[in-house]
Amino acid sequence: xxxxxxxxxxxxxxxxxxxxxxxxxxxxxxxxxxxxxxxxxxxxxxxxxxxxxxxxxxxxxxxxxxxxxxxxxxxxxxxxxxxxxxxxxxxxxxxxxxxxxxxxxxxxxxxxxxxxxxxxxxxxxxxxxxxxxxxxxxxxxxxxxxxxxxxxxxxxxxxxxxxxxxxxxxxxxxxxxxxxxxxxxxxxxxxxxxxxxxxxxxxxxxxxxxxxxxxxxxxxxxxxxxxxxxxxxxxxxxxxxxxxxxxxxxxxxxxxxxxxxxxxxxxxxxxxxxxxxxxxxxxxxxxxxxxxxxxxxxxxxxxxxxxxxxxxxxxxxxxxxxxxxxxxxxxxxxxxxxxxxxxxxxxxx
Length: 349
Known about the structure:
This protein is an alpha/beta fold. Helix content is 53%, strand content 7%. The chain has 15 helices and 5 strands. The protein has helices at 16-25, 27-32, 42-46, 52-55, 57-60, 65-85, 103-114, 129-142, 159-170, 190-197, 218-229, 238-245, 256-259, 263-277, 298-348, and strands at 4-8, 35-37, 90-94, 120-126, 175-179. Strands 2-3-1-4-5 form a 5-stranded parallel sheet.
């Protein structure tokens, strides 16, 4: 068994992807220092879900039911082997997807993890709603899933409702709730703070931090919304999303008057964190904006979008031409090799 298994569950927009990418990239460094990082947590979650292919659809894609079950069984066997080997006494499993599982699945997950370790400890980062709500909306705008005019109610997490199934399953003493506070983190880095949370801060110096989910500027958000309004599907357009993150300027924010509409829910979250965990996440430095003036005219937005699409099409054409040239070069190479072989055979004869 692991001596301690740390279970990191987010929350949303608190640097989770950066932590996961960095630990996955540095898994060998962690293993050499007694830490087993579970690089693929989804099959572990799916193995305890009542309806795994429904709850975690990405795992079921392109797999038959039998192959899916075999994949989950192999993943669980690998985790159990790591726990039993005793080579790494400390285990780390990190996943935000668990936040979307029902309470019954979370209870089964707790039983499974507790069978693998002498002690299971949870880690959850709480971000001030004034920072979390605009950040979540910006992410959805970048993915083509939302507009800045959408209602804010479903962006208010309800932290008590979110944490309650975990507290019930693991116990309140097992969960460590930490404030999302970049200015107060060691090295101002989420990875350094997480390693501090699990008692291994010295491991940070051997890791290369993998920054993920760059912030979205207000100008980039307007361009993304213009693309969505024009009917373009941007969710799977990685070139366009990369283009958006390169647009500089003030970060996307929401007017203070809009946030006032969900003030009661925000205050309830903050009061719960303070009352139950003594945690007071600091508000963002910039805070909400008094008004959200347009960075571009409608005509400018359309022209920027068209220019980007023209560049993307040109880049795609160049990629196609390069691949065709590489195929042609490979065919010529094979013909040349075949010709040389024929000549050698003829000379021997």
